[in-house]
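Check these lines:
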Amino acid sequence: MGGWGEKKEEGVIAKAAKAEKVTALHTKFGDAKAAILADYSGLNVQQLAELRRQLHTAMVELHVVKNTLAQRAVEGTGFVPLADHFVGPTSVAFSQHDAIAMAKALTEYAKREPKFNVRVGFIEGQVLSPTQITALAELPPREVLLARMLASMQSPLVGLVGVLQGVLRQLVYVLQAVKDAKEQASQEG
């Protein structure tokens, strides 16, 4: 009853559960385009649930992680530079789609809830400071950026079309003037 064999069995089960968590986290890091680490200490369960709901609309997952397991999970992924940042109470937000939307959602929540502190991010191979994450969050949505880029690409083309139309119009005027001059010369002669 409660002997050595049972404790050994519990230890094996605990190790298996930890290995499973590391594997699951490793998969999350492997699939993610971006991750942002934050200190969530001081938040209660309801506040974390509210944050998760807000992040869900931005297609972002939030996980509270054990630092040692997370450090093992980043091994063999592009997120290895984050390994040294797993200290203290840590939550990880993962995005497979839109890093800007994730940054916006997290910084907006951090503005409303001072207990939530964005610590570091890793986006497209770059480690980002909280200031850089805030700057990223202030960028306009992807669609607006694409529309601006398209407009700036169209602008020179529209100018070129205008110039070409002007040249053609001048050519037509010259040809019309030559025709009128020949008609007038043939009528006089």
In short: The chain has a mean pLDDT of 85. Strands lie at 34-39, 60-65, 90-95, 117-123, 126-128. The chain has two domains: 4-139, 140-189.
